Amino acid sequence: MRTSQYLLSTLKETPASAEVISHQLMLRAGLVRNVASGLYTWLPTGLKVLRKVEQIVREEMEKAGAIEVLMPMVQPADLWEESGRWEDYGPELLRLNDRHNRSFVLGPTHEEVITKLIANEISSYKQLPVNLFQIQTKFRDEIRPRFGVMRGREFLMKDAYSFHLDETCLKTTYQNMYNAYCRIFERLGLDYRPVIADTGSIGGDASHEFHVLADSGEDDIAFSDQSDFAANIEKAEALAPKGTRPSATQELTQVATPNVKTIEEVATFLSVDAQQTVKTLLVQGANENTPVIALVLRGDHQLNEIKAENLSEVASPLTFATDEQIQTTANCNAGSIGPVNLPIPVIVDRSAAHLADFICGANVHDTHFSGVNWDRDIQNYQVADIRNVVEGDPSPCGQGNIVIKRGIEVGHIFQLGEKYAQAMNCGVLTETGKNQTLTMGCYGIGVSRIVAAAIEQNHDKYGIKWPSAIAPFQAAIVPMNMAKSARVKETAEQLYAQLQRAGVDVIFDDRKERPGVMFADHELIGTPFLLIIGERNLDTQEIEVKNRITGEKSLMKIDQVMSLFQ
Ligand code: ATP
Ligand code: MG
Ligand code: MG
Ligand code: MG
Fold this sequence. Notes:
It is a single chain. With 566 residues, the chain is of the alpha+beta class. Helix content is 28%, strand content 23%. The strands form 7 sheets. Strands 3, 7, 8, 9, 10, 11, 12, 15 and 18 form a 9-stranded mixed sheet that branches. The protein has a 5-stranded mixed sheet with strand order 22-21-23-24-25, sandwiched between helices. A hairpin with a 5-residue loop joins strand 11 (219-224) and strand 12 (230-232). Helix 1 crosses helix 15, helix 2 (44-63) packs antiparallel against helix 6 (167-187) and helix 2 (44-63) packs across helix 15. It is elongated, with a radius of gyration of 27 Å. It starts with 20 loop residues before the first helix and ends in a 9-residue tail after the last strand. The site of adenosine-5'-triphosphate (ATP) has 16 residues, from strand 8, strand 15, strand 18 and helix 15.
C-alpha cells in the first residue's frame, strides 16, 4: 500500500464529540467515521484491523469445531412471535415493514433464525451435536449509543449456537468454547478476564462474560484478592451472603439529598393518570411519605405527561422509564433506562420491575453508566456507594476480599437450555425413537467492540500501540526527502517490493510530506515498526528502525530487516 494511493484520513485535532480515548484515536487515526448516531463507516485502515480480529475469531471457532454460516440481518417477525421475544425484547429491537406490510426486525441476535434452521435441517440424534457460527452485522437500537463503535447501534458480532441432545454434551461444548475464547483474547494480545455472569432474560443456567480490563469500561467486575474468583457485579451481588450489608435501598434513602421528594409530592407533578400509576407502583414497603428513589412510569405513560416546566422541581434522583425499557434493561444495563434529554441526574431502581433486590445504574445528562459507583460517576450529586457488594467485602467464594475493576464486555457465552428449542419445536428422534427437545448454547463476541477495547488498553500520547496481531500494517516505510535523493527512493522501492513479496503488511509513505508529519501519522495509526530510510545511513547500507511499542530506535542493515517479521 502506498499512501499516495490510499485514504489515510488522519486528523490533527481531537474531535470534541469523542469522550473516550479509543473513540478519539479511532477518529484521529482515520479508522472510522460517524454516519449517524451509533452508525459508522469503517475506513480502509479501520477495516484492516476489523478483518484481522474477525480472522482470529474465525480461525479459533473453526479449530473448536464450529462451522460457519451466514444468516440474514433482516428477520421475519413470525419467528420472534414464535419465540415470544416479539413481545419481550423491548425497544432495542428495530421493527420494520416491507411493501406488503409484513413485519420484520433487524436482527439484534440470531437465536430464532438458527433454531428454526436446525428444527428444519436436523431430525436425528445422529446429526448431533452441531455448533454453527457466523460473523454478521447486528442492529440494536441502543438508547444511548456512545464511545464510538464500543456501543454502536450497528456492530459486528460473532455469534455461535450449539445444539445438543443432553446437558452433558452442552457442557462439553460450552467448555470448549470457553477455551476457544481464551485463545482468541490471548492471540489478540489483550489483558482480559473471564467472569461468571448472570444469565438474565436470555435464560439458562450458566454464563460467562469476557472482559477487557480498562478504566473506561462500563461494567464493574468483582475479583477476590486471594483466589481466582471473578464475577460481574450483578452476579457477585447475587452470590453475596444475604444481610451482610444494609440494603442498598436503605442506604440510599439515608444519604438522599434534601431535594428528594416524597411519593406524595412527586405525584403532584404528574398527570392524574400517571399519579395513579405511580401510586400503584410503590417500591415494596413504601408509603406516600417515602422519599422517591426512582420513578417508573409504566405502559403508555410517557415523559410528556409531566409538565416540562415542572421538571426541575421534581426531585433530582428520578427516572422515567417505560415498562418495556425496564424489562429490556433489567438484565443488562440499568443505566440504559432514562430519558435522553432530561437535564437531571437519574437513578434507576430496577427493583421496580421485580420488586426484588435494589440494583441500580445512573445517568447524568446524555451519559450512560451501568453498575456505577455513584461517588465516582455522578457529578454534582453526592451519594454513597450503594452497591450491595463493595471493595473490601468478603469474597462470595470464601477466600479473600473483593476488589472491583472496570471492564469492557467483549464476549459472552451462555448455556441456554431448552428455551428456544421448546418454543420453536426444535427436536430430534432419539435412539429409542422418541422425540426430544434439543438443548442449546450460544456464544457471542463483539468483533467491532474489540477494536475499540484494544485501543483503550494500548495507546500513549502519540496514538495507538496495536498488539502486533491486529495492527493494520506491520511496518511503515518512511523515506527522508525521497524527492531529492535517488538513492533513498530506490532503496525504499526495493524494500517495499521485498516486504510485499514476503507477505508483510507494509505501508510505503511516498507522500511529499515533511518527515515530522509522516512520523506523527504512523505513530498515531500505531504501526509497530517504522523503517526510516535516510541518505546518510545508506553509506553503511543501514536504515533506522523505530519500535512503536518500546519507542526504541536502532540502526539495522537493510538485508537484516526481514528478520523483524519472521
Ligand atoms: P452490553 O452489556 O454491553 O449492552 P450485551 O450483554 O447486551 O452487551 P450480548 O447480547 O451479550 O451483549 O452480545 C454479545 C457481545 O456483543 C457483547 O459481549 C459485546 O461484546 C457485543 N455488543 C453488544 N452490544 C453491543 C453494541 N451496542 N455495540 C458493540 N458491541 C456490542
Ligand atoms: Mg452485558
Ligand atoms: Mg446490551
Ligand atoms: Mg452480554
